Q: What sequence folds into this?
């Protein structure tokens, strides 16, 4: 049986919080690809 409450909680939280992907995209648009690399590498390192 599918756990709807778990799925809906996950969908709600991911819809309203800015995750690393959105923050990386915004940082890259603001500063450029090369200047945004340290932030992106830091995000990857923090997840591991």
A:
């Amino acid at each position: 049986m599918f756990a709807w409450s778990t799925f809906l909680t996950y969908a709600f939280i991911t819809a309203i919080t800015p995750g690393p992907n959105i923050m990386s995209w915004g940082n890259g648009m603001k500063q450029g690809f090369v200047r945004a690399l340290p932030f992106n590498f830091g995000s990857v390192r923090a997840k591991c």
